[in-house]
Amino acid sequence: MANARTTRRFGAPAPDEWVESTRRTVERRLAVSPPWLASLREGGRDRFELLGFPTRRDEEWRYSSVKSIVEGPCREPIEAADAGVDISGYRVPALDGVRLVFVDGLYREDLSDREALAPGITVETMTEAIARGEAALERSLAQAPEGEHPFHSLNTACFADGARIHAAAGARQERPIHILCLGGVGGTGASHVRHQIEVETGASISVVEEYRSEGTTFTNAVTQVHVATGGSLVRVKIAQEDLSAHHISFLAVRQEAESHFHDTFFAVGGGTTRNEIEALLDGEEVECTINGLYHLDGDRQVDNHTLLRHAHPNCRSWEMYRGVLDGRSRGVFTGKIHVYEDAQKTDAKQNSNSLLLSAEAEADTRPRLEIHADDVRCTHGATVGELDESSLFYLRSRGIPPVEARHMLVHAFAGEVLDSIEDDLLREELAGRLAASLSRARAEA
Amino acid sequence: MLEVKGLMAEVEGNAILRGLDLTVNAGEVHAIMGPNGSGKSTLAHVLAGREDYEVTGGSVRFEGRDLLELEADERACEGLFLAFQYPVAVPGISNAYFLRTALNAVRKYRGEAEVDAVDFLALVRERMKLVGMDEKFLHRAVNDGFSGGEKKRNEILQMAVLDPKLCILDETDSGLDIDALRTVADGVNQLRSSERGIVVVTHYQRLLDYIVPDHVHVLSEGRIVRSGGKELAQQLEQEGYAWLETSASGAGGGA
């Protein structure tokens, strides 16, 4: 991919403050990086400086307000390595097994728990994997996405740590592995995390990546997933940061033949969020599900950007994104499905639905199909609407008060995404968090 | 129980009800018949509190209270129930959850304790027998993918669970074959009691063979133009509604 890397500059040069703080961070990282990683980091830093920041004039960023991120914090927070952090509130029954905790991007052994690992499952930190001299790291960390942008380069240059999860052939872990990233502990700042999840042949695990923060933090997360032949990965990403937080994430997935990947993006927090996913269906009989559910109010925004690359025949993909938008919020979905010439019998379904709870909320949907095979089934559907008045009246005519009736209908709208999560505990946990988010928004409205 | 006096209502500026009077006492079954466009469904929806209808005159008292002052959900909690002509499908909400939420909302309004899942299930199972509904419908989304007959049975099930004082059945016979009609009518008949009033709104006399009314009213151009016993329904069946035009204009109330 290195040759295909874009070197064009985005609309706005990186401000001096960003350039300087990035250089300082990279300097600190170089001191603890082996030579191959040091050169990757320097390359990331240089590309970041070359690329600059996108503006709304850049097609892929038309609906993203990068401005608020550029004006937000760019320095790493003061090191909070020893800060007292109470994570009891995050240890819900649905997520109370293996846990890796990162505070402001740095691993905290004292808050983590790696006891309950099933045979064949390895959970380590990126720092540990690097120190161990893990052979595959150099190549995987160097991989850049199709549409590389400065945040990805920044991540490569600056990431402090992250989770590295490996499931050996045939290994199974029943309960989800919890990656908990807490921001804003050492004051507001920027943190860059890099996670890798590797599922070998026939292995099956689930991972929950959760982001929490206090204050106007900036989180820049890159997660790389590889599911080998016949492997299965269920991933849930919970974005529940401070309502003023900035969050940019990139998920890169590569699936081999007969593998399953099921992803749910669940956002009930964050001020400016960009959720970017690029999946390569790199074998036959691959199943890939990419779902999203987000609730927004105030001036908050979520920008979803997905790219599914069907490279081989007989693969199926499902995409369902649902946004509940209140206040003056904005939800964006840009979903591209790219079917290669060889990928006959591709079956791809894409759906984006937005429920507007206020007249000032806005939803934008841009489906894009690029199909080079002739025997495929690709469908996309998009709806933007308000709560259905006749349904509301029906519920009320049975004695259900208006507030509760609206609540029920919003949950019904969100339900389809939640229902696709098989884990009962996790599904109920998320339903509860959605309810809490709706109640908070209503109380503040 | 229900006292409607000189009720006038309009939809988007079109007058539909033009001074309607109706009194229903506990224990009585009233049938309201009339041709299409006479205002039958409007009456049902105005009583249930649908907001797209604007009441422009008259009064409605229900159990001594001013019904028109109440919101739709409050009317339901006070004991008024409308069985819809076109029950609304609500994907994503199970029938069981919907019914239990409704029952508990009504109980809460009345100052009664909420019903837990176990007691609710026992109650709803018993009431399902009344309308010959299979238990699997509890776990399906409300009216979603239900046939016409299943939807109407579901309406009567809701009625049986919520135990209202006054039931308004809006064209409950429409879209039903004779077997479904009979089942639904049986369900309604079992809910007849000396404490409950029932208003059956229908175009055809057919339903009234099964739910035999005490009083029959003929609605034309937003007013009740004739009232009588159950024999009036049979007369309408034989003669149709054509005679209304002459009689209505004869009474000086023509359009």
Structure write-up:
The complex is a heterodimer of chains A (445) and B (255). Chain A has 445 residues and is of the alpha/beta class. Chain A has helices spanning 16-30, 35-51, 66-71, 126-131, 137-142, 150-158, 389-396, 402-419, 424-444; strands at 99-103, 106-107, 121-125, 163-167, 177-183, 190-199, 204-213, 218-227, 232-239, 246-255, 260-267, 272-281, 287-296, 301-310, 316-325, 330-339, 347-356, 362-371, 377-385. Chain A has one domain. In chain A, the strands form two sheets. In chain A, strands 2-1-5-7-9-11-13-15-17-19 form a ten-stranded mixed beta sheet, covered by helices on one side. In chain A, a hairpin with a 2-residue loop joins strand 1 (99-103) and strand 2 (106-107). In chain A, helix 1 runs antiparallel to helix 2 (35-51). Chain A is globular. Residues 1-5 of chain A have low confidence and may be disordered. Chain B is of the alpha/beta class. Chain B has eight helices and twelve strands. Chain B has helices spanning 40-48, 72-78, 95-109, 117-130, 148-162, 178-191, 230-239, 243-250, and strands at 2-11, 14-24, 29-33, 54-62, 65-66, 80-83, 90-94, 141-142, 166-170, 197-202, 215-220, 223-228. In chain B, the strands form three sheets. A six-stranded mixed beta sheet of chain B has the order 6-9-10-3-11-12, sandwiched between helices. In chain B, strands 2-1-4-5 form a four-stranded antiparallel beta sheet, with helices on one face. In chain B, strands 7-8 form a two-stranded antiparallel ribbon. In chain B, helix 2 (72-78) packs across helix 3 (95-109). The two termini of chain B are 31 Å apart. Residues 249-255 of chain B have low confidence and may be disordered. The A-B interface holds A 388, 390-391, 393-402, 404-405, 408-409, 411-413, 415-416 and B 48-51, 71-73, 75-77, 81-82, 84, 87-88, 90-93, 98, 101-102, 105-106, 109, 141, 158, 162.
